[in-house]
Amino acid sequence: MFNSISSIRAIFSFLLLISIISLIYSFAFLEYYLGLLPCVLCILERMVVGGILFLSLIGLLLSYDKNIKYLFAIFIGHLLVLLAGLYVAYRHFLLQYFPAEESSCFVALGVEEKSFWTEVVESLASTSDCSSIDFVIFDLSISAQVLVLFTFLLIVVLFGLQVLYKLSKNNLNK
């Protein structure tokens, strides 16, 4: 069933669709409809979803080339972006549910001193506190929703790697 290049296209299409829905949810619903301003960690989580969207689009376009090496590289890129996203989402989740005395968003990431990138992300974010829980749905805060999303996407990417590995083994045996 999942043993052709069209399966890989379907996985990239699914990742692309989930990324678009996630960004619409965060921008249109959370930010504009509910009026919730994103914190620094929320901005980083959105960047991860944007990275997944970009990699999925590239993977979808490259899947028509049928070059397995490039597709493996795209899946590994997904894996690395999602692992970074899981780290940020987990730190955000911990900061919300187990707040420390120091509630700076960058201290939550383990960043002691400000660098160029921390300044860029901080300038994009509002003054919203990373440890505040502003919206809950199904008893999940936004950071918990992102954690579930990234875990689900990680499972999809690992499944895609397995399908691609089987596909590459079948191509080598022919």
What are the SSEs and their pairings?
Blueprint: H1 5-33, H2 40-62, H3 68-97, H4 105-108, H5 116-124, E1 136-137, E2 140-141, H6 142-173
Antiparallel strand pairs: 1-2
Helix pairs in contact: 1-2, 1-6, 2-3, 3-6
Determine Rg (CA atoms, Å). Answer: 18 Å
Please trace the helix and strand order, writing H or E for each element: HHHHHEEH
Number of DSSP strand runs: 2
Class computed from helices, strands and strand pairing: mainly alpha
Task: Give the helix proportion (percent range).
Answer: over 70%
The largest sheet has its strands arranged as: 1-2
Give the gist of this structure.
With 174 residues, the chain is mainly α.
Q: What would you note in describing this structure?
A:
It contains six helices and two strands, in the order H-H-H-H-H-E-E-H. The protein has helices at 5-33, 40-62, 68-97, 105-108, 116-124, 142-173; strands spanning 136-137, 140-141. It is mainly α. It has a two-stranded antiparallel ribbon with strand order 1-2. A hairpin with a 2-residue loop joins strand 1 (136-137) and strand 2.
What key phrases describe this protein's structure?
single chain; elongated; 2 strands; 174 residues; mainly alpha; 73% helix
